[in-house]
């Protein structure tokens, strides 16, 4: 059975089997067999091709890495563990945002602290979109029962919805910005996720504790790892269920 994922990734990047073979130092017929007969290359070749076509090894060869190996690699994806979000240096947030060249993903209920740290953030995100970065911001739907439940669990009824509406006033300025989407979800969040290309900050939620007092993992994606991918997949699932603001809310 042909490896259509590999074929598509090669073509999508303007390459040919001959060009791939030349770059990694193998015979062109070998690359053809990897595609047409779904042969699995040696690990060094898998990693070289994955980097060349900007895809993950498990995506191109799903059976090449065992779950045990993926878990082992995943352990090395964690750069730093902070005991609370308030301990994450502001310079780290700024560096990750400024260095992003492909994507910026934000999944939170409000994420107000980002704007409090840097009031220029909205302008930075708008410029990122102009520069070709895909910016996706997923905020909690302030009318969702999940939002009020979170506020009650933290002992501050009504506060979370108020924070979201405050954040909306900032992000309204991104309406119509190229490459930027601000959507709303009603998901019960177990983590807030902030992705900047191949790095990610995951703010783990703890029942009864406000997010600034909960731990944060700083992750960097490694080919074949499963930790970064777990949270990336989580973001994508929420993205699929998120919606723009309703017409009535925009008019209000």
SSE order, one letter for each helix or strand: HHHHHHEHEHHEHHEEEEHH
Total helical elements: 13
Helical residue percent band? 40-55%
CATH architecture tag of the largest domain: 2-Layer Sandwich
Structural write-up:
This protein has 13 helices and seven strands. The protein has 252 residues and is of the alpha/beta class. Helix 2 packs across helix 3. The longest helix has 14 residues.
List keywords for this structure.
seven-stranded mixed β-sheet; 13 helices; 2 domains; 434 Repressor (Amino-terminal Domain); 16% strand; elongated; alpha/beta; 7 strands; 252 residues; Endonuclease, Chain A
In short:
This protein has 252 residues and is of the alpha/beta class. It has 13 helices and 7 strands.
Blueprint (SSEs and pairs):
Blueprint: H1 4-12, H2 17-24, H3 28-36, H4 43-53, H5 57-60, H6 67-75, E1 78-82, H7 90-99, E2 103-107, H8 112-117, H9 121-130, E3 134-140, H10 145-153, H11 159-171, E4 180-185, E5 191-196, E6 199-204, E7 216-220, H12 227-240, H13 247-251
Parallel strand pairs: 2-3, 3-4
Antiparallel strand pairs: 1-7, 2-5, 5-6, 6-7
């Amino acid at each position: 059975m042909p490896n259509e994922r590999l074929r598509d990734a090669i073509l999508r990047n303007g390459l040919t089997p001959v060009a791939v073979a030349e770059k990694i130092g193998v015979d062109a017929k070998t690359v053809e067999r990897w595609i047409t007969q779904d042969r699995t290359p040696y690990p060094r070749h898998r990693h070289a091709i994955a980097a060349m076509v900007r895809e993950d090894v498990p995506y191109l060869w799903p059976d090449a890495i065992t779950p045990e190996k993926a878990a082992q690699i995943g352990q090395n994806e964690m750069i730093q563990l902070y005991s609370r979000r308030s301990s994450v240096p502001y310079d780290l947030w700024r560096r990750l945002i400024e260095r992003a060249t492909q994507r910026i993903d934000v999944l939170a209920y409000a994420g107000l602290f980002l704007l409090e740290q840097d009031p220029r953030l909205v302008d930075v995100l708008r410029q990122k979109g102009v520069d070709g970065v895909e910016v996706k911001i997923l905020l909690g739907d302030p009318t969702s029962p999940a939002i009020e439940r979170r506020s009650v669990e933290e002992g501050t009824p009504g506060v979370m919805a108020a924070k979201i509406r405050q954040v909306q006033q900032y992000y309204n300025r991104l309406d119509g910005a190229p490459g930027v989407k601000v959507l709303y979800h009603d998901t019960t969040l177990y983590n807030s996720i902030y992705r900047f290309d191949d790095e990610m900050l995951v703010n783990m939620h703890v029942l009864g504790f406000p997010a600034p007092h909960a731990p944060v993992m700083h992750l960097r994606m490694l080919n074949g790892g499963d930790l970064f991918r777990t949270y990336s997949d989580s973001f994508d699932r929420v993205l699929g269920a998120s919606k723009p603001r309703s017409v009535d809310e925009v008019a209000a």
